[in-house]
């Protein structure tokens, strides 16, 4: 990515201390900010997330009681195409469970993103339901988080179109994932949606005035485009221009910040330690699907790519597969990197593959059992998705109304 976000995120519990926070963004280094307020301890920081953000001081009550915080909002989604695999789970969904206690969270099934490349139309609806069930089976709690289907909230597509009119095609042409996917598919076979889907991604985020977006390093370029679009729209249509059209003025969109996934959560392919585990990889042997039965998991681990040097070790650039398999073991056991390194340093691959298989099966079995319970009760799942979409649509409508107004559209009469 051409623009790198770097930050130092410190948490203080003593109100008399000063917090000096320096933030570097793509356009250069900002002024150091000194905050003389108490900052609450964020659970997510302890979970290993890195926050590339400008920290706001909490709102305090006039009565002098302890400061009360309105929860910051986090939005994220996963496509329903293909089977949800270990990389989706460890890189995103598992971390959502950590976020839902600290933030106001909205998690959606990104079915609109699923059609940017060729897909199986008859399977899309069932895949969407299956993905929603997996969210819940993995521990997403609907008393704390909203779970909904992207296409059930029409504002996603409306905002995308409103943003498209102000998105330079040059911004989209430089997206790395578009270049890679269009090269594989061939220019004559690539639909316009593949070019414009980063604008839909921006709409997904900006629609809900999101404060933070959980992203991996490979998605930072798309988040930076979202930030640029938010700033551009605020400049073109916000502030006094919006106020003259009857609006409240100020910013139309929050400029979202990144929550970088914990180190090691980028799970790589079982057949190539230099490639990310992917639903689109032609071989199913390259990934562990969350619903794979025990014998399938055992077979995939038994046949996965390894190397010949003795012993096992992290972070050797000459041994990407070794690093990947150790990282998976660390993530599913919950052990520290040091504990795994010590246990496995003298192991051979035969021994390690056996304990890795057992660890994966033990970790995934409760998820698979809960998934079967949820998918067997379609009325329950339908109600969850309906409630989630209703809450999301309510939040989205305010943003959509504001942007229509700021862009000068004639307001629809309340009398039909």
UniProtKB/TrEMBL annotation:
Keywords: Aminoacyl-tRNA synthetase, ATP-binding, Ligase, Nucleotide-binding, Protein biosynthesis. Transmembrane segments: none annotated. This is tryptophan--tRNA ligase. It catalyses: tRNA(Trp) + L-tryptophan + ATP = L-tryptophyl-tRNA(Trp) + AMP + diphosphate + H(+). Its EC number is 6.1.1.2. One of its GO terms (biological process) is translation. GO terms for cellular component: mitochondrion. The keyword Aminoacyl-tRNA synthetase applies. It holds the Pfam family tRNA-synt_1b. InterPro entries: aa-tRNA-synth_I_CS, aa-tRNA-synth_Ic, Rossmann-like_a/b/a_fold, Trp-tRNA-ligase, Trp-tRNA-ligase_bac-type, Trp-tRNA_synthetase. It is an enzyme of class 6 (ligase). Belongs to the class-I aminoacyl-tRNA synthetase family. CDD domains: TrpRS_core. One of its GO terms (molecular function) is tryptophan-tRNA ligase activity. It is found in: Mitochondrion.
């Amino acid at each position: 990515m051409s623009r790198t976000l770097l930050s130092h995120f410190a948490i203080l519990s003593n109100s008399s201390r000063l917090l000096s926070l320096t933030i570097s963004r793509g356009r250069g280094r900002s002024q150091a900010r000194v905050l003389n307020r108490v900052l609450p301890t964020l659970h997510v920081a302890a979970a290993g997330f890195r926050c590339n953000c400008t920290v706001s001081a909490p709102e305090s009550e006039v009565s002098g009681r302890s400061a009360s915080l309105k929860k910051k909002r986090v939005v994220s989604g996963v496509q329903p195409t293909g089977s949800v695999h270990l990389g989706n789970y460890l890189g995103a969904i598992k971390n959502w469970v950590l976020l839902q206690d600290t933030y106001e969270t909205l998690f959606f099934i990104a079915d609109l993103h699923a059609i940017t490349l060729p897909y199986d139309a008859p399977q899309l609806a069932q895949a969407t339901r299956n993905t929603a069930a997996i969210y819940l089976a993995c521990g997403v709690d609907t008393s704390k988080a909203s779970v909904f289907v992207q296409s059930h909230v029409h504002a996603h597509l409306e905002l995308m179109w409103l943003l498209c009119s102000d998105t330079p095609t040059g911004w989209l042409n430089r997206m790395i994932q578009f270049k890679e996917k269009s090269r594989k598919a061939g220019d004559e076979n690539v639909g316009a949606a593949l070019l414009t889907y980063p604008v839909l991604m921006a709409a997904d985020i900006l629609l809900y005035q999101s404060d933070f977006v959980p992203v991996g390093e490979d998605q930072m370029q798309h988040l930076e485009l979202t930030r640029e679009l938010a700033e551009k729209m605020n400049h073109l249509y916000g502030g006094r221009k919006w106020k003259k059209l009857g609006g409240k003025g100020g910013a139309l969109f929050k400029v979202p910040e990144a929550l970088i996934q914990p180190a090691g959560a980028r799970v790589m392919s079982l057949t190539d330690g230099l490639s990310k585990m992917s639903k689109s990889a032609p071989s199913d042997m390259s990934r562990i699907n969350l619903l794979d039965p025990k014998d399938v998991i055992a077979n995939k681990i038994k046949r996965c790519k390894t190397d010949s040097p003795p012993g096992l070790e992290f972070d050797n650039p000459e041994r990407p597969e070794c690093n990947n398999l150790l990282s998976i073991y660390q993530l599913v056991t919950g052990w520290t990197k040091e504990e795994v390194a010590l246990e496995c340093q003298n192991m051979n691959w035969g021994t390690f593959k056996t304990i890795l298989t057992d660890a994966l099966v033990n970790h995934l079995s409760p998820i698979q059992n809960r998934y079967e319970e949820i998918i067997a009760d379609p009325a329950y799942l339908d109600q969850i998705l309906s409630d989630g979409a209703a809450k999301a649509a309510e939040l989205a409508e305010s943003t959509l109304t504001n942007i229509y107004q700021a862009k000068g559209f004639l307001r629809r009469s309340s009398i039909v």
